[in-house]
Amino acid sequence: MTSIVNRKMQALRSRRDGNVAVMTALVLPACISVIAIGVDYGHLTLERRAMQVAADLTAIAVASDMAHAETAALSHIENNRLNLVLKTPQGWKAPSGALVPEASIIGTTGRVTLEKGRYVANAALGVDQRFQAGVAPSDAVRVTVEQPGTLFFASMFTTPPVMSAVGTAAMTKTAAFSIGSRLASLEGGLLNAILGKMLGTTLDLKALDYRALATADLDLFQLTRGLASDLNLTAVTYDEILATEITVPQLLTAILRHGGLSSSTTTLVSKIRQSLPASGKRLSLARLIDLGTKGHLRIDAPTGLGIKVGVLDLLQSSAALANGTDLVKVDTKLDLPGLGSVDLALAIGEPPVGTPLHRVGEPGQAVRTAQVRVALAIKIDGLADLLGIRISLPLYIEVAHAEAKLAGIQCHGGKASHATVTIDTVPGVAEVSIGQVDAAALKNFGSSPRVTKAKLVESGLLTVEGLASVDIGSAQVRKLTFTPGDIAVGTTKNVSSSGLLTSVTQSLLANLEAEIRLPLLSLMTDKVVQAALAKTLGAVTPSIDALLERILAVAGMRIGEADVRVTQVDCANPVLVQ
Hints:
It is a single chain. The chain folds into two domains: 21-152, no CATH class; 174-576, no CATH class. Helices cover 32% and strands 30% of the residues.
């Protein structure tokens, strides 16, 4: 019996009939499972891609109208018939705007979450750090879409996964803004003396002439194209033209070619141009002007932007830049009550690198004035109580740069014509002293000149020495807001530090340490001299304040104050960002 079984088993071992059917029966369920998983995976991939498209397009729609983010998102969802609901402070909203219970959307409907914030286009930051949620003013939005996936076969042994996609969009917004100092009191004599020294010529313009130059505006793009023509530059960008070294006469020639200027302004510019030597010190306008991303455009490409700068502002800053740190020395007599002759030494520092006076920038970028130092020796007719002895008042003023930072641009309705611009401004803080300084040390901006006690009065009757120093202004940030109307007409707004109600000269006199020396047989006393000194200096306080203001204004500065202007806004279409 055993042998029979063995023979049958040996016969079966040698047979191969039906082996394919057996293997197929074993492998087919696994193959079907793999195919089913592949179908589900492929469908999930397509759904994930559709979710990403929905997140991206919703982000762009919301970024186009940040002021009405919720309405923009719901409108986009409804117009595209997306199976999504929006998370709001009131609850989940359907595209129609109606609130829906959360229980009714679990597992069936996708959910959209909006996060408004600021986007910082800085390659030095990680991708996850560039979008700053909740930071105001908002210029970007992050949209998160969550939705359960659809399974056809795998649902027999697992639950559908919840997938998510994130889209971030930001509106590229730029503004043209500048900082400087208006000449509150235009006085031809001092302006002619200082500006003429900077330009290396003699000027003879009246106050009305300077007022005409101060109110005339130039379009920077048009001016730059004119420079390119004069310099025979073709196929170049605006930045390349600004980086080219030119002379002040070449700049004035380009201004004369600029259209739209009044005949009186053109005549004045021509008069200044003719007074200058053909050659002179060279300057690069790139130190004064930054056109931002528009600067990369070729001069034959449309910019879609017009940037204004005043003729006098550009002339002042260009003359100062061309003059470099060379001292501007002026000896003049002014028409200010009580003041005699004035010896002036003025030094203007190089413009800070990366922060020009005029720029087209995005929120976070800034403009700054240059640092200014002034040494004055003022002769004052006074001390009538003391036989008419003249006072010599040496002053030293050092003004730090003022700064204006573009804090935010609100493109209401996505339109530049409705935009509001916010500027954070820090006026220039000043150190003002009564004392003697070495004029040669003024132009070394790497160190501060030493202020020493000075002789205010020196005669056979008496000697008075004095020293005083005060800090004027504060580094507190002041916020300026420019409305669409302000921007349209190029309104200049002023910001000043607190505590400037008292004049600079009064503050100095209050801190004056005077040392009085009288002859042994003198009939005068210290109290008499102090009273006479205080009376004389107090009488000319307004004149000294006016003198300081005029001098610094020519250099583009004012103590504890800054003038800011916004002339154009560009609200570009929103784009996806990372």
